[in-house]
Structure formats: structure tokens, C-alpha cells
From TrEMBL:
It comes from the Eukaryota. Coiled coil: none annotated. Belongs to the glycosyl hydrolase 27 family. It is an enzyme of class 3 (hydrolase). It catalyses: Hydrolysis of terminal, non-reducing alpha-D-galactose residues in alpha-D-galactosides, including galactose oligosaccharides, galactomannans and galactolipids. This is Alpha-galactosidase. One of its GO terms (molecular function) is alpha-galactosidase activity. It comes from Zea mays. Its EC number is 3.2.1.22. One of its GO terms (biological process) is carbohydrate metabolic process. Keywords: Disulfide bond, Glycosidase, Hydrolase, Signal. Pfam families: Melibiase_2 (PF16499). Residues 1-28 form the signal peptide.
Length: 370
């Protein structure tokens, strides 16, 4: 532990008092800053205009195939994941979306211009898979890109096919679309993501719309007009520094997150093995306090008891899913810990993850911890 960190841990009682004081000061500063800010504009890139599909009143919770499986995905994996979410209690904890990421479709569209499931990996088709997921009380998500191809280049994107694809997804019973930003044609992001937004509204089915635009073009300033969440960062990686980089970038846009539309610093890496248990506790806690989507990225059919304990922590989930409109504003300076305009339980969450990193005393931890 670095000397400057050790100095913050003189005793449990003193450190808790310091933490409480810092949180109170940060909350007061955040409230004052909110009052001081001019109102967001009513049109253009303003966050006042919301994508009104009735979804995303709290940050989405679920599972996504990419972080662990990437393109090594098939219908058996998805079915077993749905089974596991129910069996081990994660569905009951709120993880309701089962989301396919890239590589689910055949490499080319049909002669009629339709996207179809890969016949080798999804022989039963997506509608049958959606029916199975729905039978478990869960919801199915799917993936495409606002370009000519998806990011893997193994399947077509939806650029120019937005209405057709949205209606097809709806006919299959899809509940969620993650829409990526690869193989774009130079058309502005607001135009390409806006086309799919309108197509989803026209599809006749409420479909959660997750913009995966990587934080380009200050997407939080306009994402709320088109979708229910928007990526504020590049892809996460399963390391301590990578995780903190993403939450740090996400923090710049805290004011734009509201019920109906959320900042997304990417999916959870908890359980994938690149970080220590204590670091995963921090990771999960920060995502919850920031009101980021809680989308599991590990193999839940082989989840350890430690990982399950993190992901199913009811107190931390309650912070994520609470009715409060404000999410956290942060700094990695010891004098400015994460502050969430919530209630006293935010202090307990902060204390929990700080305790994990100062095992014998409770203190603050800098971004470049040793």
C-alpha cells in the first residue's frame, strides 16, 4: 500500500468519520453545482427531451454474452444462462435481460434482404430462443450496428435496413437492442442512431434501446432523445486501471443520467478473473453508485460463491435501482470520494469497498493504488 494511502487509515473510527465528512461535503457541493448550472436546453442536444418508450426508469440489469464468450456463442449457452439466472437467484435480484451480442447472425442477408440467425450456432432461430427466455420470466436482447457490418465483421449491420430489422426483431419477441457503431459510412451518429430509434418506435413492440456509440460526439448530450442508455466510453477491460478509466470518463456526464436514459460505462467484468475479489467489489459498487447499467459479463453457469455474493448484494443493487434521480459524481482524490445524492446507505456502500482495500482499517484509495 502506498504511503499516502496508508496515512488515510489511522483507525477504523477516524477513517469512517473522515469518510462521512467527505461524503457530506461532496454531496453538498454536487447539490450546489446542480443549482448553479443553467437548465438544459429544451431541444437540439438537450437532455430534457426523452426517448419515451416507457422503459429504463431504472438502470437496466441483465447479462450479455460479449465480455466472456465474445463470438463463441450459441443457443445452448444462452438457454443455460437463462436457466442459471433463475436457478441461482440472479433473476429474482433483478437481472432480467439475457442479451446476445455480436456474431449471432449469418454472415450475409438473405436474397430478400433479411438478417437471419446463424444456422450452425442458432439452429432453432431467434424467435424460439426468445420464447424459451420468456418462459423463464426473462427478456431477450439482441445486437446490431449502425453500419454496414457489425464490429466482428462476421454479420451484417442494420444501416439502411433499420425499419426492416426493427420490425423483424419485434416479430421475434426481442425486448432489447444493443446498437453498435462499427463500419459507419460517414453519416453523423445522431442520424444513424436516430433512424433506428424511430424504427423501434414504429415496430409496435417496446424495445429497450442501448446506444453503443463509445462516447463519441458527446453522446450523453443527445442520447436521451433517441435511446434508454448510451455508452460513455470505449470497451471496458478486465483490469483495475481499465475499470477505473471507464468510470472516470463516465463521471464527466453524470448530470445527463435520468430515469428513462442512463450513462453506460460498459458491462460488468465481475467474475471474469482479471481482477481480485476486492477489486470486483469496488467495480460493482462504483457502477451501482453511478447508476450505470448492471449487465453481467461473466459465465453465470460457473459462477463462484464470491462472485455471486457481489452480484446479488441487495443493498448495493438497491442503490442502483432506487428512485433517486441523481447519480454519483466522483474524483479519485482522497479528499473527494464518490458521492451519491441518495441516503445513508450510500455511506455504507462506500465504507464496504473502502474496507475491502484497507483490510484492517478503512481509508480511501487512489486510482493508482499499489
Amino acid at each position: 500500500m502506498a504511503p499516502e494511502i496508508q496515512s488515510l487509515c489511522p483507525s477504523t473510527t477516524a477513517a469512517l468519520l473522515l469518510l462521512a465528512a467527505c461524503l457530506a461535503a461532496a454531496v453538498a457541493a454536487l447539490d450546489a453545482a446542480d443549482y448553479a448550472r443553467p437548465p438544459l436546453p429544451a431541444g437540439g442536444g438537450g437532455r430534457r427531451v426523452l426517448f419515451a418508450n416507457g422503459l429504463g426508469l431504472t438502470p437496466q440489469m441483465g447479462w450479455n454474452s460479449w465480455n466472456h464468450f465474445q463470438c463463441d456463442i450459441n443457443e445452448a449457452v444462452v438457454r443455460s444462462t437463462a436457466d442459471a439466472l433463475v436457478a441461482i437467484g440472479l433473476a429474482k435480484a433483478g437481472y432480467t435481460y439475457v442479451n446476445l451480442d455480436d456474431c449471432w447472425a449469418d454472415s450475409e442477408r438473405t436474397k430478400e434482404g433479411y438478417m437471419v440467425a446463424n444456422p450452425k450456432t442458432f439452429p432453432s432461430g431467434i424467435k424460439a430462443l426468445a420464447d424459451y427466455v420468456h418462459s423463464k420470466g426473462l427478456k431477450l436482447g439482441i445486437y446490431s450496428s449502425a453500419g454496414t457490418r457489425t464490429c466482428s465483421n462476421r454479420m451484417p449491420g442494420s444501416l439502411g435496413y433499420e425499419e426492416r430489422d426493427a420490425k423483424m426483431f419485434a416479430s421475434w419477441g426481442v425486448d432489447y437492442l444493443k446498437y453498435d457503431n462499427c463500419y459507419r459510412d460517414g453519416t453523423p451518429e445522431t442520424v444513424r442512431f436516430g433512424r433506428m430509434s424511430r424504427a423501434l418506435v414504429n415496430s409496435g413492440r417496446p424495445i429497450f434501446y442501448s446506444l453503443c456509440e463509445w462516447g463519441f460526439m458527446e453522446v450523453p448530450k443527445w442520447g436521451g432523445m433517441y435511446g434508454n442508455s448510451w455508452r460513455t466510453t470505449g470497451d471496458i477491460n478486465d483490469t483495475w486501471s481499465g475499470m477505473l478509466d471507464n468510470i472516470d470518463l463516465n463521471d464527466a456526464y453524470a448530470r445527463y443520467a435520468k430515469p428513462g436514459g442512463w450513462n453506460d460505462p460498459d458491462m460488468l467484468e465481475v467474475g471474469n478473473g482479471g481482477m481480485a475479489y476486492n477489486e470486483y467489489v469496488v467495480h460493482f459498487s462504483l457502477w451501482a453508485i453511478a447508476k450505470a447499467p448492471l449487465v453481467i459479463g461473466c459465465d453465470v453457469t460457473r459462477v463462484s460463491n464470491e462472485t455471486l455474493g457481489i452480484l446479488s448484494n441487495a443493498e448495493v443493487i438497491a442503490i442502483s435501482q432506487g428512485h433517486h434521480n441523481h447519480n454519483a459524481s466522483s474524483s479519485f482524490s482522497p479528499a473527494k470520494p464518490f458521492a451519491s445524492v441518495l441516503d445513508s446507505c450510500s455511506l455504507r456502500v462506500c465504507a464496504n469497498y473502502i474496507a475491502c482495500l484497507c483490510p484492517t482499517q478503512i481509508g480511501w484509495v487512489s486510482k493508482d493504488r499499489k
